[in-house]
What we know:
By secondary structure, the protein is α+β, with helices and mostly antiparallel strands. It has one domain: His-Me finger endonuclease fold (3-Layer(aba) Sandwich). 44% of the residues lie in helices and 17% in strands. Strand 1 (9-13) and strand 2 form a beta hairpin. Helix 2 packs across helix 3. It starts with 8 loop residues before the first strand and ends with a helix.
Amino acid sequence: MGSLDRAVLTGFICRLCSEMHRVVLHIYGHEGIRLNISEKINKYLSINVSPSDPLPKTICNNCLERLENQHRLVMRIEQAANLLKGH
Length: 87
C-alpha cells in the first residue's frame, strides 16, 4: 500500500462544504502542499486551517475547483491593477 501523502483519499468530509465525498484531496498531503491549498484557504476565505486544528484536513474536488477559480480571479485582478498603475 502506498503513502497517503501521494494518494487521493476516499470517503472523507470536505473541510469547506462539510459534505461527505468519495474522493477528496488531503490539504497537507503532497498534492495539497504543491497546490498551496492551506495558504489559499487562509488568504481567500474567512476561515483559517492549520495542521493542528481538530477539523477535517481534506477538500472535495468541487470546493478545490472553486478555490482555484477564486485564486485565478484574484491573480487576474492584481495583474490588471499593476498594468493600470504602469508596473
